[in-house]
Amino acid sequence: MSAILAVRGLQKTFGSVVAARDINVAVPPLQTVGIIGANGAGKTTFVNMITGHLRPSKGTIVFCDRDITGRPSREITRLGIARSFQIPQIFQSLSVFENMCAATAIAHAAGGLPAQLLTPWRAPGSLRQAEAALELFRIARYRDTPAATLPQGVRKLLDIAMAVAGSPRLLLLDEPTSGITIEEKFELMDVVMSALKDRGITVLFVEHDMDIVARYADRVLAFYDGAVIADGSPAQALADPRIQELISGPQLKPATRSAGHA
Ligand SMILES: Nc1ncnc2c1ncn2[C@@H]1O[C@H](COP(=O)(O)OP(=O)(O)O)[C@@H](O)[C@H]1O
Ligand SMILES: [Mg+2]
After folding, report:
1. Environment of ion ligand 2 (residues, CB < 5 A)
2. Is the CB of 225 under 6 A from ligand 1?
3. Per CATH, the architecture of 34-40+72-248 is what?
4. What digits encode the pLDDT tens for the residues 39-71?
5. Distance (Å, rounded) from C-alpha 5 to C-alpha 33?
6. The Cα angle at residue 78 between residues 73 and 153, in degrees rounded to 5
């Protein structure tokens, strides 16, 4: 298997809006891919199609040599693709440890939703794995803190730790560093990326901050108006004038009329 994920001719329309147009990407195992692009460029739509949260209008998605196009998200998760959301999806009233136990138990329950709902959260295997996950993501000191009162950076780490509970081979992170300070961003990404390397997980992450992308991505996909307009190393992406414009916004055009003319 050369690519862990291969996307061909992927398209998604919402009425007259084309949110994804003819996307072709092959990701080799263990690559770290940064996805950039302005708001509305189609980044989340792309992630949602891979994870089965949206059904593509056209095209195919192949994961580990298996066509997963349009499969339900729960099945795709079981096959080994996990994700985090821009807004962490955690149980606010539970502690960090209880959240982690729940994610671990749910990830390992065979047989779909009924079995998941009946799975005891405090099975010994789940407890051990949950403790290990909190250590790996460096949030063990928040073990007994209610999720509702966590600092945003810790909440993000917990969300990602929970996404990894099912031992995915591919992880998609949608803006993992949104809403946290620049100093915290690097700390968070250091922890996340070393944890994912430790587990041998291939990662695609959506990120607005090019400093983060340049530091952590092996490869950058730049989205514009539903299409991938650049695909290369962070250095290549940063040198591309179209990407510069994406990052800094369109340059103001020089005035075409001189003063005094109507
Ligand atoms: N569920 C939806 N229904 C209608 N339009 C949508 C939906 N989701 C996304 N879009 C539109 O698709 C385009 C791409 O959105 P999105 O993938 O969320 O962009 P990004 O994540 O890059 O900000 C936008 O024009 C957005 O308004
Ligand atoms: Mg988005």
Report:
1. 43-44
2. no
3. 3-Layer(aba) Sandwich (3.40)
4. 999 999 999 999 999 999 999 999 999 999 999
5. 12
6. 75
